[in-house]
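Chapter review: from sequence to fold.
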Amino acid sequence: MACKDWNNIPPGPANWISVETIEEGKFPNLRVSFIIHKCHHCIEPACIQSCPSGAISKRKEDGIVVVHSEICLGKSKCGLCLDSCPYKAPQFREDNQSHMEKCDLCLERWEQGKKPICVMGCPTRALDAGSLEEIESLYGKNHEAIGFIYSLKTKPAIVFRSKSKINNKCYIK
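The token string follows.
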């Protein structure tokens, strides 16, 4: 909700970030995991290569993949970016004339040295953002998680940190 509010995204199908709950196992060995779906600002973004209008680019200084909506052909005339992205990060609003939009890591905040609003608004502090090298130095180089397939073609700039081992006992009063 913080993302939708910050970026003035109206209710509807466009979500620049979403959280999926993955449930596994059978009682008493249950496991719940959460995975985010958003633009992973890939090292080799397929969306850039597929865009015929050049509306998508990657900033050299920080690797953020940005969309120039004013030159996007729109969903009804193109949509190749969505078809090419293995993570379905490109988003379109309900009307067929909408132009592509997606997470830009809250670029205006980023340029002020602030973290994206999703990181600041995450109640469990499960998200972080920074250069890939910085994030890997803090959390390791694990690029695998339940519900996520790492694309060797696009090389998403994402790191997963395993949940800490916790006491799996359930106490009911």
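Two observations follow directly from the output. The chain has one domain: 2-139. The radius of gyration is 18 Å.
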